[in-house]
């Protein structure tokens, strides 16, 4: 079902205490209707006053077309929110009759009021809980900033929703704050993105539904066991998006950390772990961690393990200077994301020289790694003169393009594993 493999250099030079490793986790889950328990998808729509006109029209159309995609073994619900939330369609099986009711109810939505994101998420939480579903995905969309009075409520509700459903967040237009959507999505193991043209909602929502329906196992966990003398510095998902997972991890005991991985289908994802090790002398060896994926199969807890992540100190430069190509690849993808973020920040502050340099570096890294998605978004913000040299020219200010790049800058591409020259940790 699951396979886990570690990539790292198993030799460190004396005096070196940091170890970086990439874990590739793959799953060959096959989707069997009803075998993995009930699945539910939720549509959470912003209907505040600013959503009037084309935005709400496209949002309603996208939701209706999305509901048509659902098979009858799926469940669904629809929530609308502004200053408060309403249950438009309660959690129900996706029968023809319930779909017809949903079409009519969604079509009757009107825009008015303020924006309270916590109310939309709280209503989704209750619908998922009441459905008895074992696997839940929510598509959350908004076009504005959250109300200032709702900030504290939002933090508390996000905490409550952790582990209940995964949530993809979409900002419509350009009058919303990326940090708010990124906060929700990161905590709920989803993605955040900009749909600056409302006409793009239908395609994006359908892609979300295809991903959701392809999942066959919920609640997988990466379990990391390390000796007390070893400190785990970071755990990040590196593909398909860069996501810091330390804030959602749970400490089981002083040696064990559980990191939620969410629902899985037939797919592979990469994760980067960094450890701080105790000082070691030549030929001394230390175990950094034992990693495993823990999941339920047929109601029984099952574990997939990888070889121990262990290293030895050496005085042989031929060994200690070898580079794991997986680690190097994702170090480059992280630099790409950082260059974009810092470049956009410099651009917003009017420092065009710094912005041009950083976004030029991003263009070079994106081309070298074959990251076509980030390259496409970059080209809306800069004219790429020479990608190999990192030479770009800033385009005329375009808030929509900047927002698309800011949220899409964490998209990564995977490197094919198992090729000659990879360093796999076995000593």
From TrEMBL:
Record-linked InterPro entries: CLCR, VWA_3_C, VWF_A, vWFA_dom_sf
Residue span(s) of domain VWFA: 40-217
Pfam family, one: VWA_3_C
Source superkingdom: Bacteria
Gene3D superfamilies given in the database record: 1.20.120.1690, 2.60.40.3670, von Willebrand factor, type A domain
Protein name (Swiss-Prot/TrEMBL): VWA domain-containing protein
Upper classification of the organism: Bacteria, Pseudomonadati, Pseudomonadota, Betaproteobacteria, Burkholderiales
């Amino acid at each position: 079902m699951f396979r886990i493999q570690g990539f790292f250099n198993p030799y460190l030079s004396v005096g070196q205490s940091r170890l970086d490793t990439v874990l590739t986790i793959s799953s060959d889950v096959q989707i069997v209707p009803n075998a993995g328990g009930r699945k539910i998808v939720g549509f959470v729509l912003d209907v505040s006053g600013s959503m009037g006109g084309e935005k709400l029209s496209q949002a309603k159309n996208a939701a209706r077309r999305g509901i048509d995609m659902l098979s009858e073994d799926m469940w669904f619900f629809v929530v609308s929110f502004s200053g408060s939330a309403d249950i438009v369609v309660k959690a129900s099986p996706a029968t023809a009759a319930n779909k017809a009711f949903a079409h009519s109810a969604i079509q009757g939505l009107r825009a008015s009021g303020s924006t309270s994101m916590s109310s939309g998420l709280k209503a989704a939480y209750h619908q998922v809980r009441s459905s008895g579903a074992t696997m839940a995905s929510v598509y959350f969309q908004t076009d504005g900033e959250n109300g200032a009075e709702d900030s504290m409520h939002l933090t508390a509700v996000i905490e409550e929703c952790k582990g209940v459903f995964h949530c993809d967040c979409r900002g419509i237009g350009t009058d919303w704050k990326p940090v708010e959507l990124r906060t929700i999505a990161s905590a709920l193991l989803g993605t955040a993105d900009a749909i600056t043209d409302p006409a793009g909602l239908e395609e994006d929502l359908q892609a979300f539904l295809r991903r959701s329906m392809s999942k066959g196992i919920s609640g997988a966990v990466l379990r990391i066991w390390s000796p007390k003398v070893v400190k785990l510095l970071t755990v990040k998902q590196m593909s398909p998006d860069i996501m810091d997972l330390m804030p959602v991890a749970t400490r089981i005991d002083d040696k064990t950390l559980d990191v939620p991985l969410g629902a899985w289908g037939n797919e592979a994802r990469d994760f980067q772990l960094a450890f701080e090790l105790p000082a070691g002398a030549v030929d001394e060896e230390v175990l950094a961690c034992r990693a495993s994926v823990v999941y339920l199969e047929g109601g029984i807890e099952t574990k997939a393990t990888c070889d121990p992540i262990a290293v030895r100190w050496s005085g042989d430069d031929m060994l200690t200077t070898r580079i794991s190509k997986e680690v190097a690849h994702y170090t480059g993808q992280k630099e790409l994301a950082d260059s974009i973020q810092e470049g956009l920040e410099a651009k917003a502050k009017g420092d065009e020289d710094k912005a041009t340099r950083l976004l030029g570096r991003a263009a070079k890294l994106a081309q070298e790694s074959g990251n076509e998605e980030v390259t496409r978004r970059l080209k809306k913000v800069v004219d790429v003169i020479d990608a190999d040299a990192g030479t770009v020219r800033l385009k005329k200010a375009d808030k929509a393009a900047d927002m698309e790049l800011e949220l899409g800058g964490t998209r990564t591409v995977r490197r094919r594993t198992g090729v000659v020259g990879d360093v796999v940790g076995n000593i």
